[in-house]
Design a protein that fits this description.
binds molybdenum atom, Sulfite Oxidase, Chain A, domain 2, mainly beta, binds the ligand Nc1nc2c(c(=O)[nH]1)N[C@H]1C(S)=C(S)[C@@H](COP(=O)(O)O)O[C@H]1N2, Immunoglobulin-like, 5-stranded antiparallel beta sheet, 23 strands, 5-stranded mixed beta sheet
Length: 439
């Protein structure tokens, strides 16, 4: 995606750009290459198919080299995402990849299948041995530690942790809200290894004045490399919670470059943006942090419920998002599954999680919510891991069915039927629905 024209590429990414300014997007993808025969596979139906896949016409199709695969479709060919498998590309600038629900069937999400949510550039040529983490601000002894120091000075712990993007489910908001249109797959539960943030902070000496963290990472704003891509924080109590980790390993390997190599925060149960990637500094503050992603309407909810589409001022957005709400996911069968005949039982399974709470009940409906079938639900592998559930379901007759899943947590929070609308498209936790046809 070279910009031969010297024009600054739009930061929102190619897919969005194809939708809004297809000519400019085409210029970025194809440059101004002159090729002798560009018709090739793009004749007639081929071009229509590709346009449909891109969601836009291709005004400069005549310039496309024969057999050319648009960057927007060539996920695996995009630089920097080697080691990712089967994910849907929501945007490439910054890179955002969503996992289809049926690829999340494993108890522990593999690195290849963990969703990616980036705000800026991904740091390149990272030297893990030279990487340092600085702890400063409201501490008595500011520290700068290498990863070797972390491993040597503090107990190393492993745990599974749900990381879910605050915008997961945004695609179901009506009217639509801006941002990545995540459906259900901006969530994963990998195994993370690292040291407790609490241990590091205690070594640095937390002053009584410390009320909030400020997280800093090495990724940069796409348009201005002097600006951070994201800098959020959490209340000091959550920072001192023993499951809040500074992680240097993911699924027993080095952290993948897209997931924050070589060091990241893991703040399980909380909005994904709290889990700073490419972590190089944590500052303790005596006020709520005001970094990129903390102010205005960013990762905040309005003080009162809004009518869908209601326009309001930033001042109403007083509630900083913390824990994620109760939710469940059907990971088998995949949506669109065909059951061979009526009366034959199939196993339906998935996961459920509930932020700071524990899921107490998962129920499924095949009759649009009129009656519910209770699933067998496992305890989490550790606090903040998602919980596996499964149930046998038999369909009475042939035809079209939907399977709906609804989780309830130990505080009696239940997944809703309809989105509680907010303009950021945050915390969408409507019930997951899949389609099943009985032949
Ligand atoms: N430095 C940095 N950390 C970051 C982000 C980012 O853009 N930059 N994105 C955040 C958001 S919004 C989410 S949802 C999670 C996603 O983590 P993952 O990409 O490892 O799945 O990372 C968080 N940490
Ligand atoms: Mo996110």
């Amino acid at each position: 995606m070279k910009d031969q024209g010297g024009r600054v590429p739009a930061p929102e990414g190619l897919l969005q750009q194809f939708a809004t300014d297809p000519e400019a997007a085409d210029r970025e993808v194809f440059g101004r290459v002159a090729c002798a025969d560009r018709r090739g596979f793009l004749k007639g139906a081929g071009l229509a198919t590709m346009s449909a896949m891109l969601g836009a016409t291709i005004p400069f199709a005549r310039n496309m080299p024969s057999g050319f695969i648009p960057v927007a479709l060539a996920e695996e060919a995009l630089a920097g995402i080697a080691g990712k498998e089967g994910l849907a590309l929501l945007g490439d600038k910054p890179l955002n990849l969503e996992t289809p629900a049926h690829l999340l069937d494993d108890a522990v999400t593999s690195t290849a299948r963990h969703f990616v949510r980036n705000h800026g550039t991904v740091p390149e040529n990272v030297d893990a041995a030279a990487w340092t983490l600085t702890i400063d601000g409201e501490v008595t002894h500011p520290l700068t530690l290498t990863i070797a120091d972390l491993k040597q000075k503090f107990p190393v712990v492993s745990q599974q942790a749900v990381i879910e993007c605050g915008g997961n489910g945004r695609a179901f908001f009506n009217p639509p809200t801006k941002g990545n249109q995540w459906t259900v797959g901006a969530v994963g539960c990998a195994k993370w290894t690292g040291v407790r943030l609490a241990d590091i902070l205690k070594a640095a000496g937390v002053k009584p004045s410390a009320v909030y963290t400020a997280h800093h990472g090495a990724d940069r704003d796409l348009a201005d490399p002097n600006k951070p891509a994201l800098s959020r924080g959490i209340p000091i109590e959550k920072a001192l919670e023993p499951h809040t980790l500074v992680a240097f390993a993911m699924n027993d390997g080095p952290i993948h470059p897209q997931h924050g190599h070589p060091l990241r925060l893991v703040v399980p149960g909380w909005v994904g943006s709290a889990s700073q990637k490419w972590l190089n500094r944590i500052e303790l503050r005596n006020v709520v942090h005001d970094g990129k992603g903390m102010t205005g309407k960013s990762y905040r909810l309005p003080a009162r419920p809004l009518q869908p589409g209601e326009e309001t001022t930033d001042a109403l957005f007083t509630r900083i998002i913390t824990a994620m709400p109760v939710k469940s996911l059907i990971t088998a069968p995949p949506s669109g599954h065909v059951v061979s005949k009526a009366g034959k039982g199939i196993e339906v399974r998935g996961h459920a999680w509930a932020g700071e709470n524990v899921v107490r009940d998962v129920a499924l409906s095949i009759d649009f919510g009129a009656t519910w079938i209770r699933a067998q639900l496992a305890e989490p592998a550790n606090k903040y891991a998602w919980q596996r559930w499964h149930v046998q379901i038999t369909f009475p007759t042939e035809g079209y069915y939907e399977i709906w899943a609804r989780a309830t947590d130990d505080k009696e929070n239940v997944q809703p039927f309809a989105v509680s609308w907010n303009p950021g498209g945050f915390l969408g936790n409507v019930m997951h629905r899949i389609a099943v046809r009985v032949a």
